[in-house]
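does this look right to u?? protoporphyrin IX containing FE version
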Amino acid sequence: MNILLRAHSGLRYVVLALLLAAIFTAYSSWKSNKQGDNKIYLFALIATHTQLLIGLVLYFMSPKVNFSLISEKVFRFYSIEHVFMMLIAIVLITVGRVRSKKVEGADKHRTVLYFYALALIIILAAIPWPFRNLGSGWF
Ligand code: HEM
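got this back:
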């Protein structure tokens, strides 16, 4: 449980870095009319799906997931808000990637840009940053 939690916590930075890199690549490839796919889109997808897998295991083990204590902020956050928002973000990234593969030419990068950027905003909002007082740290 502890190893998984540390991995899940640290991987947030990998996810954020890959998403930022993918968004930046998508924007510049779209603007410069580049053809073809970019592997960074796939890597960002894999990183978020890894978070999903670890997160699912944590969800069934974590003492912070408890529906009888749902009126308390921390339990509500981990039992509902965190999972729900992260699932939406991961679906957006998956749909963005799948759709972009069907789009011809440089427009595929625009598709990635819109879906990944929206997902990034949701992920940033759903991370239990220390200043939100949800009992989690920076790592
Ligand atoms: C991109 C997606 C995700 C990111 C970046 C992310 C990030 C994080 C971070 C930073 C923490 C705090 C870790 C700590 O206290 O040190 C956390 C906790 C947690 N996450 Fe996620 N998460 C993601 C997706 C998910 C998903 C999809 C689930 C469930 C299906 C999930 C379930 C949990 C649970 C249950 C905890 C609390 C564990 C505990 O402290 O006992 N996460 N997550």
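The pocket of protoporphyrin IX containing FE is lined by residues 5, 8-9, 12, 15, 48, 51-52, 55-56, 58-59, 62, 64-65, 78, 82-83, 86-87, 123, 127-128, 136-137 (CB under 6 Å). idk if thats expected tbh
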